[in-house]
Structures are given as structure tokens and as C-alpha cells.
Amino acid sequence: MAMKIRLARGGSKKRPFYRVVAADSRMPRDGRFIEKLGTYNPLLPKDSEERVKLDMERVQYWLDQGAQPTDRVARFLEASGTIAKQERANPKKGEPGQKAKDRAEEKAAKAAEAAEAPAED
To answer: Compositional bias (Basic and acidic residues) at which positions (predicted)?
Structure first.
């Protein structure tokens, strides 16, 4: 059985609340799970201790059993120091789009023209 440690969504519309659960990877996101390991409330401020609560002993047990955390849960575990931090490389994400590049080129060209104009006087 392929186990995952993942989020199961709860809460009402536009008021998300998540349970961190150990579940079979074939089950639906909000469906059957084996054990509740903690909670995640994204509406709380990032520095709040109540934002992410995990039972670290049980999380470690499931990791030892071979459960794979999802990306978001892995970030929680990295922040708590349970698992080693992984490098995530997405070099194109921080790169501006084509229109933004064109605007920057136009702005640089106008600035160059403005700098040359007073020098000729």
C-alpha cells in the first residue's frame, strides 16, 4: 500500500482548514484516511504557533514506515527540522514575462535618449 502524508481540506467555502493525515495514495483527497497527524490553518498569521500543529512522534513513525509527504507537508516538516531541506529549482518562475521584458527595454531606451539629449546642448 502506497502511503502519503498529505492535507485533507475541511472548513467552509473561502475559509480553508486542513487536517494533516496519513492516507493510502489511492484514496480521494478528502476521503478515507488512516490517521490524523495534525492540522494546518492558513488563515492564521505565519508566525502563529497555532498555524501548523503536528504530532511529530506519529509523523516520524509514518515516515519510517515509508510514507511519502506531499510537497506542502514536506515544507512543514523541513521547517520543523524533521526531514532534510531539499533544493527546489524552478529558474523560470522568478523570470519576468515577455511583456515586462519589452517594457523594461523601452524604459531603458527612453532613459538613454534622455541622458544623451542634455549632453548635446
So the answer is: 85-110
pTM for this structure? Answer: 0.69
Distances (CA, A) of 108 to 9, 28, 100: 47, 52, 12
Q: Domains in the chain and their CATH numbers?
A: 3-80 (3.30.1320.10)
Query: pLDDT confidence of 113, banded at 50, 70, 90?
Result: confident
**Strand pairing class (3-12; 52-54):** unpaired
Those residues whose C-beta lies under 8 Å from the C-beta of residue 3, and which sit 6 or more positions away, are 22, 23, 24, 25, 34, 62, 65, 66, 67, 68
Give the tens place of pLDDT for each residue, 18-69: 999 999 989 888 888 999 999 999 999 989 999 999 999 999 999 999 999 9
Burial class from Cβ neighbours inside 10 Å (0-12, 13-18, 19+) for residue 20 reads buried
